[in-house]
Design brief:
Layout: E1 2-6, H1 11-20, E2 35-42, E3 45-52, E4 55-63, E5 67-72, H2 82-97
Antiparallel strand pairs: 1-5, 2-3, 3-4, 4-5
Organism: Croceicoccus marinus
Pfam families: PHA_gran_rgn
Protein name: Polyhydroxyalkanoic acid system family protein
Length: about 100
């Protein structure tokens, strides 16, 4: 699943906001019962491990010049929640960067 969130910030500011607000990412998963671990793989890629609903998912966040791209590997068994999660990612991602 891939969700792009546009922004008008410089990359350093996007990284700073992602870093300082990473705890807010648990709100990206409906139900609020998620645990999310993050680490920076490079200056422009944050890795994520998401534990929710008995599942462990991996993903990453890429910081680009005009957008932040959230990518999460959803197993086929969870494909039914993709529309709900992608909508939440877009909404919460915008708030995370504001």
């Amino acid at each position: 699943m891939r969700v792009a969130v546009p922004h008008s910030l410089d990359r350093a500011e996007v990284r700073r906001r992602l870093d300082t607000r990473r705890g807010d990412m648990t709100d990206f998963v409906p139900g609020g019962l998620a645990q999310i671990e993050t680490s920076w793989q490079s200056d422009d890629r944050m890795l994520m491990i998401i534990r929710a609903m008995g599942q462990e998912l991996t993903g990453h966040v890429d910081v680009e010049d005009t957008q932040v791209v959230f990518e999460i590997d959803l197993p086929p068994a969870l494909s039914f929640v993709e529309p709900m999660i992608s909508g939440t990612l877009e909404d919460k991602g915008r708030k995370l960067l504001s």
